[in-house]
Amino acid sequence: xxxxxxxxxxxxxxxxxxxxxxxxxxxxxxxxxxxxxxxxxxxxxxxxxxxxxxxxxxxxxxxxxxxxxxxxxxxxxxxxxxxxxxxxxxxxxxxxxxxxxxxxxxxxxxxxxxxxxxxxxxxxxxxxxxxxxxxxxxxxxxxxxxxxxxxxxxxxxxxxxxxxxxxxxxxxxxxxxxxxxxxxxxxxxxxxxxxxxxxxxxxxxxxxxxxxxxxxxxxxxxxxxxxxxxxxxxxxxxxxxxxxxxxxxxxxxxxxxxxxxxxxxxxxxxxxxxxxxxxxxxxxxxxxxxxxxxxxxxxxxxxxxxxxxxxxxxxxxxxxxxxxxxxxxxxxxxxxxxxxxxxxxxxxxxxxxxxxxxxxxxxx
Length: 364
Description:
The structure is a single chain. The protein is of the alpha+beta class. The chain has helices at 17-20, 26-40, 42-46, 59-72, 77-86, 88-94, 105-116, 120-134, 239-249, 268-276, 298-301, 304-312, 315-325, 337-363; strands spanning 142-151, 159-161, 168-169, 178-179, 191-193, 200-202, 211-221, 227-234, 257-261, 279-283. Strands 1, 6, 7, 8, 9 and 10 form a six-stranded mixed beta sheet that branches. Helix 10 (268-276) links the parallel strand 9 (257-261) and strand 10. Helix 2 (26-40) packs across helix 14. 33% of the residues are buried.
């Protein structure tokens, strides 16, 4: 028998959002993880909010809303709030009831900037790492490091000469003026962006166009590919080496460590600094060019663990792939190293929660 279409809208619903979400939905486990983390950070939130004035968006709700945004790659706050408004799953995850009014976009953005401008995001990331450690998901001995370029939210047209010479053409278009760079050599020494002065012209590939960028670095452990440290630096050739040493120094363990990396890290200076830290460099050998000789030899490569590290090091590239394809890190909508750094670390935190959920689901 054919059913009939009912055009009358329902005025009331007695079914709570909790019962609408399936028991085996992946977001349930992720919500448990992030709720546990946020509960431990209540005192940290108290320190960045005033005790007087009008109540703001609860930081727990704000962070969970940002989690939804970075998990699903929602490009703007306006679209995010629109999704939360009509998507009951997102309302349930954030903590809003079916009848709660969604926040204003301007209010949401201002409260978001307050969190991104503090050390809260770094503490959030470290708390997630602690949860993974308690679940026995981390290795304390074997790690992998790598860096990736994060394109700045600034146009090449914003490049201006530092000596004050203006190369724009007055064509009557103040919003998008014509710029003539023909025959002019541009570099970080002579030019800087007028909209994002901290961004640097850089490329990691020969023959590729240099773009205004920052560099994100991740240190992952080799057991399950979880990120245990993450930092952001200006784009530069040796920034990856400096960041790698900084991150490996922050891992305090009594056991001997190994560090896997690609050929860019295969040089005497970097590998010797690792050995002084009692870290064995398991970097890919750069032996296919006449200009370079490898900083490691058979004393390292003969061990079976070296081959394991070389195989495991590719996981960090999968992390960067997820951050850029599924999250918002291909070209973050922020300017300045501080904000982009917070966005990068938060995106890595979301990746870790997704990874923890997947691993614990398999183990269960």
